[in-house]
């Protein structure tokens, strides 16, 4: 049982420290709305960590837990956190969907947060505030009720932000541009909080790729990031990097896109 708890704790650490495959996607619509998705795939990390477990642990009912479920993000908030939300933050959380796909036997651990922003102002508010909303560790609510006590005790942290680190960006979003710039002072604070966990992941050879995809309704005129790839019709921008690269040079995540 200790080994199983270790796996769940490490899964929690993976989520907290961004030791995952991260994909951030923006799908803009002609009416000005935008679907935004933060996807976190911890499957590779789980595969590595599972090798630490004994066969007896892998044979336990807890290890056999498999869930593919979604729920309102507001429903995932701890009561103490929900009580502190402003009316606007409550609306934002209620309009977001949290999805969890977990199957330890198949080395699957995926979490996503989806939201539909009504306009640019709504989108800018969302991306600047979503990281401030803590939720219960996703590992807690994927199991049946009889397993919850075990899983809750095993969780590395009872509350966490699923988009940890997003608060180090400054945004400027209009009909004619999408600007995102890393605030170096906030990024330094992020490294102080997560640096040790990132180092552990690196020591265990856990990759941390980071991908951003933006689909626009009109062609891109200009972009400042040489690592970004523009599609043939100039309506899609894809930026792929890794947390290692971001740590070395946070500016690799800067995007100034003119439409």
How is this structure best described in words?
By secondary structure, the chain is of the alpha+beta class. The chain has one domain. The protein contains 9 helices and 14 strands. The strands form 3 sheets. It has an 8-stranded mixed beta sheet with strand order 3-4-5-2-1-10-13-12. A hairpin with a 2-residue loop joins strand 8 (169-174) and strand 9 (177-182). Helix 1 (2-16) packs antiparallel against helix 2 and helix 1 crosses helix 7. The chain is globular and about 60 Å long. The model is unreliable at 1-10 and 137-159 (pLDDT under 50).
Helices, strands, pairings?
Blueprint: H1 2-16, E1 21-28, E2 34-41, H2 43-50, H3 55-58, E3 66-72, H4 79-82, H5 87-94, E4 96-103, E5 108-117, H6 120-129, E6 135-136, H7 148-154, E7 159-160, E8 169-174, E9 177-182, H8 184-203, E10 209-215, E11 222-223, E12 229-230, E13 236-242, H9 243-248, E14 255-258
Helix pairs in contact: 1-2, 1-7
For the report, how would you describe the main beta sheet? 8 strands, mixed
β-strand amount: 25-35%
Mean pLDDT: 78
The strand count comes to: 14
Termini separation: 55 Å
Strand order of the largest sheet: 3-4-5-2-1-10-13-12
Q: From the alpha-carbon coordinates, what is the Rg to the nearest angstrom?
A: 19 Å
The best one-word shape is: globular
Give the structural class.
alpha+beta
Strand/helix succession: HEEHHEHHEEHEHEEEHEEEEHE
Low-confidence stretches: 1-10, 137-159
Signal peptide: 1-22
Keywords: Signal
Using brief descriptors, characterize the structure shown.
8-stranded mixed sheet, 4-stranded antiparallel sheet, signal, alpha+beta, globular, 9 helices, 259 residues
């Amino acid at each position: 049982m200790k080994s199983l708890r270790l796996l769940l704790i490490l899964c929690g650490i993976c989520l907290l420290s961004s030791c995952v495959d991260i994909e951030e996607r923006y799908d803009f619509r002609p009416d000005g709305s935008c679907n935004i998705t933060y996807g976190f795939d911890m499957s590779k990390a789980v595969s590595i960590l599972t090798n630490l477990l004994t066969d007896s642990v892998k044979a336990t009912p807890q290890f056999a837990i498999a869930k593919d479920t979604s729920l309102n993000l507001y429903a995932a908030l701890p009561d103490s956190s929900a009580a502190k939300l402003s009316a606007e933050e409550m609306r934002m959380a209620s309009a977001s969907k949290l999805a969890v796909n977990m199957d330890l036997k198949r080395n699957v651990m995926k979490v996503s947060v989806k939201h539909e922003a009504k306009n640019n102002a709504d989108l800018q508010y969302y991306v600047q505030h979503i990281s401030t909303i803590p939720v219960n560790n996703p590992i807690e609510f994927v199991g049946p009720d009889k397993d919850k006590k075990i899983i809750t005790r095993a969780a590395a942290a009872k509350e966490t932000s699923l988009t940890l680190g997003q608060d180090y960006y400054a945004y400027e979003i209009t009909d004619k541009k999408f600007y995102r710039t890393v605030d170096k002072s906030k990024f330094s604070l992020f490294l102080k909080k997560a640096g040790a966990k990132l180092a552990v992941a690196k020591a265990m050879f856990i990759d941390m790729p980071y991908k951003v995809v933006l689909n626009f309704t009109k062609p891109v005129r200009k972009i400042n990031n040489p690592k970004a790839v523009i599609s043939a019709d100039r309506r899609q921008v894809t930026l792929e990097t890794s947390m290692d690269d971001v740590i070395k040079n946070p500016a690799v995540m800067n995007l100034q896109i003119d439409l």
